[in-house]
């Protein structure tokens, strides 16, 4: 019994999907294996050998003959007070700017979804955010954005998760 052309094409498509899934699984396992090896390497490699630490030797005091008069230290100049307007601005506490950037990013994402009037994939949202000059740290900004949107959608904010990396506004 022979297969029809349509049946053969359908089986080929199914086999190609299986091969793609296997390739992804292989790549994922290779990545985890490589990562595990990298993380284990410092501990599993040679034990760290440290040289014995010697206490610091005191510097020999300069010999001063009784006839040599000691020089008196020069007077230090007195610093004049700097007016407040000329002082440098104090840096905000660590993490404040990152939080502000994160809030701005989510506000812009909300605005993009509102302008579109439809649910959007995280990649589409990221394209529009990048066009507005916003950035995200990391190797995969779409994944980082997806994670942020997903967390906020779980928290009951204005975002609503409608599918894999697809978000809309809660109404």
Automatic annotation (TrEMBL):
What are the residue boundaries of the HTH HARE-type domain, all occurrences included?
A: 103-171
Record region (Disordered)? 43-102
Carries keyword Coiled coil?
Answer: yes
Q: Which PROSITE patterns match?
A: HTH_HARE
Sorted alphabetically, the keyword list is: Coiled coil, Transcription
What are the Pro residues biased-composition ranges?
53-63
Q: Which Pfam families match?
A: HARE-HTH
* Xref: InterPro entries: Asxl_HARE-HTH
Q: Which GO terms describe its biological process?
A: regulation of DNA-templated transcription
Coiled-coil regions listed in the entry: 5-32
Protein name, entry field: HTH HARE-type domain-containing protein
Q: Which organism is it from?
A: Methylobacterium currus
